[in-house]
Each structure stands twice: as structure tokens, then as C-alpha cells.
Amino acid sequence: MLKLTKLKADSSTEQKIRDAAKEVFIAKGFSGCTSREIAKAAGMNVALVNYYFRSKTALFKIIFEAAMGDFLLSMLDVFNTDLPLEEKLRNYLDREYEFLAKYPEIPSFIINEMGRKDGVHIDNTAVFECIEHTGIFAECKVEQAAGRMREIDITSITVLMMSNCQFPFMAAAVIKQVHGISDEQYEKQLVQHKQIVTDMLIGYLFPGSISNQKTQK
Amino acid sequence: MLKLTKLKADSSTEQKIRDAAKEVFIAKGFSGCTSREIAKAAGMNVALVNYYFRSKTALFKIIFEAAMGDFLLSMLDVFNTDLPLEEKLRNYLDREYEFLAKYPEIPSFIINEMGRKDGVHIDNTAVFECIEHTGIFAECKVEQAAGRMREIDITSITVLMMSNCQFPFMAAAVIKQVHGISDEQYEKQLVQHKQIVTDMLIGYLFPGSISNQKTQK
DNA sequence: GTCTATATCGTGATAGAC
DNA sequence: GTCTATCACGATATAGAC
């Protein structure tokens, strides 16, 4: 009989704390919550949190890096395919909206914590090279040189993509309040918005593409 | 001789505290800073902060609402002009980038603080009606009915505008770190990006417009 | 109005019993 | 490994002298 302890959801104390910490840190940020709050959310006490993770700061670093990794992975395997660039970007937008629907707070979390002067600092080159290694940037340059893709620099392309994916989730609370719409309505809104964003971005980045004539399904 | 006390920069204790609080709160958020920190930044002590503003929370509300107001005003007077819609939106984008270059932290501040469950809540209708009162939404519907503007709903239009204005400033730290670029380089990047965003959005929202042939100056 | 001193509480972290 | 109890500190807020 096989050992199942590693296969079933790990419900050890350590894992419970890790899960609770992920939820609480991502929702409230490092300075927005307390160790006790995390312990309570895990059904434990502060002593155990520090027993397993030494300090609030150490635990935070683990959670932050994991969130960063999840986020990065969700895009890497889209880029690591053999599809033409335009299809890759369409898939990326699909994937990103899917990922963000599941974890809508991660971008805010990363942006806020990296924005603080005393906040987390990632290895400058690691993330960028990770993405560059997929060849996506080189591919853009090839398409641009061939005149199939609009000639704007890589940074602006990534900012365009990120803006239109992440912001609608980050600002959800504000938008819902200002427009007075419910959670369910906004979820539907986001489905439409993804289609709009895809049409707009692909249309702009690949001005000559036939697929630009496509209307919303 | 006129009284100048109200004309020159008010350097009273109360105003000094207000200014310091604005800076610190916007940079670090409510839970990211302390009353002492604000007092120190103003060259005062904690007792004075509470003497003038009763509590950290009360002071925060004042600062938050002021930031909200500044932000709102910057768009309202663009909408309160007689230009055609397309020009209004171009001007809005100009204004927004100008405003955000000056106060890049305000969107994050508003979004973060409104996102928290125990955070600030604004009067649902006030902001929306304030904007609606300019007639900008009605104008969109007229242009859409006339076939000059793409038929997407108002919420998506505002999300498109906001995403492409605010996100590049909110995520500045991440983008700079990931792409390994300096503050000065990123400032230049943003100037280019504004032009790209304008071309893309106007081109998408007004598909038939002649101005879409315009290239970047 | 402005300061120092202090009350009161919540925080991160740990010691020590079990 | 897990808990209770506790320490040392820093937070908000206020009392009271000047």
C-alpha cells in the first residue's frame, strides 16, 4: 500500500499556517495584519507561527516569493509554446484573466509590497531573464522587423498587457462602488472586458492582421 | 494693505501636520505608518497631531477625502468643456498623465484603502453622479448611437481609460525592477507610453476617425 | 497652543511547562 | 510539537504643566 501522506492535501500544522498566512498577507499586506491574526486563521497560536517560521518577516518572505512564483509560472508556460506570437498573446490574455479571477489580490500584493522603500526586493535579473528565456521578446522583435507587429518597445508592450489585465482586478472595489454594481455583475463585466481588451490590444499591436475584423463572439 | 495670511502658503502648525500626513499616508497607507512618524515629518509631536485632529483615524479620513477630491477634480474640468468627445478624451489622457506624474501614489492609495473590508467607504453615488453630471456618459451614448463610437458599455470605457493611465504609475517600482531601468529612463518611457495609449484607445473607441491615421509626433 | 509624562493596550517574540 | 504566560517594546491617546 502506497504512502498517501504526500499525495493528499498536506494538513500539517506547518502547512495550515502557511495557507492562512498566504490568505491574510495577500488580503491585508505585511503591515496590515498581525502574527496573532494569522495564527488564529490557521486555528493555531502565535508561538507555533514563530516555532515553524522564526518571525513574521521570515514567513512573509516565503509567502511573497511563492506568490511571485505562481504569478510568473502562469505566464511562462503560455510563452513556452510553439504558437505564432499573436496566438501566444491571445492565450496569455486568456490565461491571465483566468488566473486573476482565481487570485485577484496577487497583483496588488506584489505591487504594494515591492513599492515600499523598506519592502521586499527581488533579484532584478531573475524575473526578467526567466521571461526572456522563453524567447518571447526576441519573437516580438522578429515580427516587428517583418512589419507584422507595430514598432513599440518591449517595455511598453508589457505595460500595455499588464495594465489591461491586472488593473480591472486591482481596482475592482473602487469600480464597483463608483458604478454601484454588485460582485456578480462585475464578474460578468470582466468577461466582456477581457474580450474588449483582447480585440483592442491585438488590433493595435498587429495592425494588418486579418483577425482584427473578428467581432466579439 | 490687504491681509496676506490666506494668500501665502499656510504654514500654521495645523497645516504643517496636514501636509506631512498627506505625504506619509499616501506613501505608506494607514497601517503602514504611525502617528509619531507623521508628527516627526511635520516637525511636531504626537500630542499636537491629536490636538488638531483628535485621532489618527480622523486625520486619515481628511487626507483620504482630499486625495479623492483632487483626483476627481483633475478630470471634472476636462469633461466640463465644449470640445467634441474625442478631443475630450485626448485631453483627459493628457491631464491624467500630467496629474499622475505629479502625484503617482494617489491611485494606489485610493485603491488600497478602499479595497480593505474595514477601509474607507465613500458615498456610492456622489462620485459617479459628479462625473455623470458633466454629461460625458450621455455624450458617449450619443456618439455610439451615431455610429462614430464603438458600442461598448460605459463601465468598460472607464476601466480602459483608468487601466492605461493609472497602472503604469502604480506598478512603476515593479516594472523598473523587472526591466532593470532607472527612474529617469522610466520617466521617458511614460512619455512615450502616453502617446501609445492615446493612439490605441482613440483608435479603438473611434474606429472610423480620420485622426487614427496620425502617427506619433 | 505646545510640551512632557504617562496610561493603556496590542504587538512580535520567547521561555518553559507539558 | 504544542500550549500558557510573560517580556520588552512601541502604538494611540490623553492629562496636566506651562
Low-confidence stretches of chain A: none
Shape estimate of chain A? globular
Q: How many distinct folded domains of chain A?
A: 2
Q: Tell me the span between the first and last alpha carbons of chain A.
A: 51 Å
Count of helical segments of chain A? 11
Spatial extent as radius of gyration of chain A = 20 Å
Largest interface: A-B, 52 and 52 residues
Please trace the helix and strand order of chain A, writing H or E for each element: HHHHHHHHHHH
**CATH class category name of the largest domain in chain A:** Mainly Alpha
Any idea what the CATH superfamily of the largest domain in chain A is called? Tetracycline Repressor, domain 2
Into which percent range does the helicity of residues of chain A fall?
A: 55-70%
β-strand number of chain A: 0
Beta content of chain A comes to under 5%
If classified by CATH, what would the architecture of the largest domain in chain A be? Orthogonal Bundle
Residue-averaged pLDDT of chain A, rounded?
A: 92
The largest sheet of chain A is:
none
| Oligomeric composition of the shown chains | homodimer
Kindly name the structural category of chain A: mainly alpha
CATH topology of the largest domain in chain A: Tetracycline Repressor, domain 2
